[in-house]
Amino acid sequence: MQRLTVELDERSYPIYIGEGLLQSPELLLGHVAGRQVCIVTDDTVAPLYLDQVRGLLSSRDVLSVVLPTGEAYKNWATLQQIFDSLLEHRHDRRTTLIALGGGVIGDMTGFAAACYQRGVDFIQIPTTLLSQVDSSVGGKTGINHPAGKNMIGAFYQPKAVLIDTATLRTLPDREVSAGLAEIIKYGLIRDAGFLDWLESNMTSLRALDSAPITQAIARSCAIKAEVVGADEREGGVRAILNLGHTFGHAIEAHQGYGTWLHGEAVGAGMTMALAMSVRLGWIDEAACQRGVSIIRSAGLPVSPPDTMQPDDFLRLMAVDKKVLDGQLRLVLLRALGDATVTADYDSEALNDTLRKEYP
Ligand code: NAD
Ligand code: GLY
Q1: Would you say residue 186 has pLDDT above 80?
Q2: For residue 223, what are the CA distances in angstroms to 21, 35, 147, 240, 280?
Q3: 201: CA distance to ligand 1 center in Å?
Q4: Which pLDDT band, with edges at 50, 70 and 90, does 319 fall under?
């Protein structure tokens, strides 16, 4: 087992990574303070892992809430189901919520924990590749609004993150590719050497071979922990974790939440960020093509949907959380492995990118 730490003073917490972590109760119980526990999961993950996790908690009073699966349900009405169950079963302020599932469950459970009785403990048990490398770490929680992705939420850190890589065995290939999008993101923004390694290991990563996938998860979590430790509430550097996300969130909202997977939209969005960085003369075409081919080799789309026009992007990107004082900031690349967040770009470069006039 590997153990990393997200360093946030009194809110610091461990990330445990290993195969079979959900076999023994000690790790999980070590982070459950009270008697009551509420496991939140979805109706796809519940038949796969709910009994196993309940089994670890036999010494506690366990409630489970099984929500409908998917991004389309990351909304107020579904969130309300968590509060309804907690109140019906008289959960008090010592309860611990456990998010068992992908990023949708993690984001909603974390937000529920932030709000319930003004804040209760929560633990992340991420079961998708995407949630293991990204959404379970860093404390961004929330739900979607029809007008924009993740628009309602809170920064609220978990007490621990337990990543059992064995859970990936049941994940469909399309979801594996979606997770690889965020892994590639870390290489593009922060670590050119990791990008080289990803290029050489993509086939075994897609096959979920144990050693390389564990290495990719650990390196991704280490980069995320470092960035979050430096800038928890995204006042500055944390925004680089959104490479491709401004374009990607627009794609997700335009297509209808759940039509394009988050990771797929990020794949196409990162391609657009690479293309725009070339337009601005910040990276050369060869670097762009290399980035695009790594994204493609992960099984991800490398262009936005044909049906999306520049005006669709502009309308949806105007509600991005990186808009400050009316200016849209974008994450762009100065080199492979070096990202910057800026509103200081030639708007024609953006327009060319939205018109899909790629180099
Ligand atoms: P998801 O939660 O929708 O899970 C994808 C699918 O996989 C679902 O159908 C789920 O039921 C299923 N699933 C989960 N684990 C499984 C397993 N082990 N075996 C088989 N099926 C399994 O999607 P996701 O890609 O995990 O997360 C995407 C969400 O995460 C988006 O809402 C995105 O906005 C959010 N996100 C948040 C952050 C953050 O920092 N909070 C970062 C990145 C993404
Ligand atoms: N996924 C972006 C972040 O956590 O900041």
Answers
A1: yes
A2: 22, 34, 31, 11, 27
A3: 23
A4: confident
Task: Give residue 358's pLDDT.
Answer: 62
Q: How far is CA 264 from CA 131, 306, 358, in A?
A: 14, 15, 19
Domain boundary among 116, 138, 170: 170
Point out the domain boundary residue: 118, 138, 170: 170
Residue 322: band (very low, low, confident or very high) from pLDDT cuts 50, 70, 90: confident
CB–CB of 11/36 below 8 Å?
Answer: no
Which ligand 2 atom minimizes the distance to the CA of 241?
A: 2
Residue with the smallest CA separation from ligand 2 atom 3 is 241
Distance from C-alpha of 276 to C-alpha of 283, rounded to nearest angstrom: 9
The answer to whether residues 155 and 207 belong to one domain is: no
Q: Are residues 126 and 185 in the same domain?
A: no
**Tokens linked to 8:** 């946030």
CB of 242 within 6 A of ligand 2: the answer is: yes
* Over residues 256-261, mean pLDDT: 94
263 CB within 6 A, ligand 2: no
Average pLDDT over residues 145-160: 93
CA of 1 to the centre of ligand 1 (A): 23
Assess whether 246 and 229 both reside in one domain: yes
Q: Residue 314 is part of which domain span?
A: 173-355
Give the number of the ligand closest to the Cα of residue 151.
1
pTM: 0.96
Domain of residue 139, CATH code: 3.40.50.1970
